TrEMBL record:
PANTHER family according to UniProt: PHOSPHATIDYLCHOLINE TRANSFER PROTEIN (PTHR19308)
Protein name: START domain-containing protein
Keywords linked to the UniProt accession: Membrane, Transmembrane, Transmembrane helix
Domain START residue range list: 154-342
InterPro entries linked to this entry: START-like_dom_sf, START_lipid-bd_dom, START_lipid_transfer
Annotated transmembrane regions: 26-47
GO cellular component terms, A-Z: cytoplasm
Pfam families in UniProt: START
Domain of life where this protein originates: Eukaryota
Organism classification: Eukaryota, Viridiplantae, Streptophyta, Embryophyta, Tracheophyta
Organism, scientific name: Ceratopteris richardii (Triangle waterfern)
Keyword Transmembrane helix assigned: yes
Length: 434
């Protein structure tokens, strides 16, 4: 009897040890699965809110692991290990695809082309291009150029110089909106006219700006030089490329060129996932001749650059990237300008965008100093700034004077006078429309 009890005890101990070994094996085989779950949750929480799909994938694998295991102790161990490995592989593959799409975004065929085309705009398109930049934008730029916009003080970022060019840059953070940047570049032995064309020439721009990979003129107004353009710029490898729809126009006042570009809505170009569109964008140049430190004569050209844009990147990270890459981009301008000057001397015809830069609008300086914005718009709508339309007033006084002569000389009755003055009033209205 005692012998039988001892055998039962040994048998129960063996079963307990076998069950314990099984549990340890199952726990060890589940480690890759849980590591994959934790990695997926962490990466998904850091990158995108789609981490729920990863969690669902892990839960689905766990559900399959416990409810679809075949019978048999040895087969069950193998099935646990196989299911955990397959689930971990699926989750790691999902994480890798997301990481690859984030770090190395695929570019479209349009982005790799440097096709610069021009499009002759019809009447409606010309009006649209003409009105994207107006006198309000010019006055705002004029205030910022003279530091009269009431913004925060500027913080100096850097001062650099190379032979033929000196450079200074500032920045400030407004209460709302992206960081604003201001720079002053002085080119030796350069005229404002050639520098203006240099910044405006999209066909030549890829020669010195390696970030621009696509430009196209969508609509234009040859009378005013206003234009709507489509740009795609290349960003660092950890960001997708950026798309810009910009309206631009050049004004001239007091020997200074005010080159205005800003982001505008344009429904004819549909929004896509890639490249990412930049809606908040303002970038303008104020170009004028200044005295050269070497010759003490106005042989140098000063460029005040004012820029801000919402690139869709965390603000501090964007500021760090701009600071690190600013000088590498700017120092390419000086050799690019010299190459452009040689290019212009050797070519007979200028590009379309450079010809648009020559169709600028001249504005009297007293209008920029004036606060009468309504008068600006009225003069611009009447066909030219700085030119008053006295045509209607001349007709008015001629018609009224003729009516007085008729009323006093031809008819002595009150009814005749009323009829003549009524006719004169109608004719004066017609004269104003002329």
């Amino acid at each position: 009897m005692a012998m039988k009890d001892r055998e039962l005890t040994l048998f129960s101990m063996e079963n307990s040890s076998s069950l314990l070994d099984t549990m340890l094996d199952v726990t060890a085989n589940m480690v890759p699965f849980w590591v994959a779950v934790l990695v997926g949750l962490f990466v998904g929480w850091i990158w995108k809110p789609r981490w729920v799909s990863l969690l669902f994938l892990g839960l689905r694998g766990r559900h399959r692991l416990f409810w679809t295991s075949p019978p048999g102790l040895g087969v069950r161990r193998f099935w646990f290990a196989l299911t955990a490995s397959v689930t971990a592989f699926q989750m790691l593959k999902e994480c890798w695809l997301k990481f690859k799409a984030w770090k190395w975004p695929q570019t479209q065929t349009m982005q790799h082309s440097r096709d610069v085309t021009t499009e002759v705009a019809d009447g409606s398109a010309t009006n649209l291009a003409k009105n994207v930049v107006d006198m309000d934008d010019l006055r705002d730029l004029y205030k910022r150029f003279h530091n009269r916009d009431g913004g925060k003080p500027w913080e100096l970022m850097m001062e650099r110089s190379i032979p033929g060019m000196s450079y200074q840059a500032w920045r400030r953070d407004p209460q709302e909106g992206p960081t604003e940047y201001r720079s002053r570049t002085v080119f030796e032995d350069a005229t404002p006219e050639i520098v203006k064309d240099f910044y405006w020439d999209d066909e030549f721009r890829p020669e010195w700006d390696d970030m621009i990979i696509y430009t196209k003129s969508l609509e234009s107004c040859t009378d005013t030089g206003a234009e709507i353009a489509h740009w795609v710029r290349k960003f660092p490898f950890f960001c997708s490329n950026r798309e810009y729809l910009i309206g631009r126009r050049i004004y001239e006042s007091g020997g200074t060129f005010f080159c205005i570009t800003k982001g505008v809505p344009y429904n004819q170009v549909p929004r896509q996932k890639k490249p990412r569109r930049v809606d908040v964008y303002s970038s303008s140049w104020c170009i004028r001749a200044v005295e050269s430190p070497q010759t003490a004569q106005k042989t140098a050209c000063e460029v005040i650059f004012l820029h801000s844009e919402d690139m869709g990147i965390q603000k501090d990270l964007a500021k760090l990237g701009v600071r690190q890459g600013m000088w590498n981009c700017v120092k390419k301008m000086e050799p690019g300008l010299r190459k452009y000057m040689a290019h212009r001397k050797g070519c007979i015809t200028v590009s379309f965008s450079a010809s648009m830069a020559n169709s600028f609008t001249s504005v009297p300086l007293q209008l920029l100093e004036s606060s009468d914005v309504i008068a600006w718009k009225h003069e611009e709508d009447n066909g030219g700034l700085g030119k008053s339309n006295h045509h209607g007033k001349g007709w008015k006084w001629i018609v009224v004077g003729g009516a007085v002569v008729l009323a006093c000389g031809l008819d002595k009755g009150i009814v005749g006078k009323v009829v003549v003055f009524g006719l004169a009033r109608r004719l004066s209205k017609f004269g104003r429309r002329l």
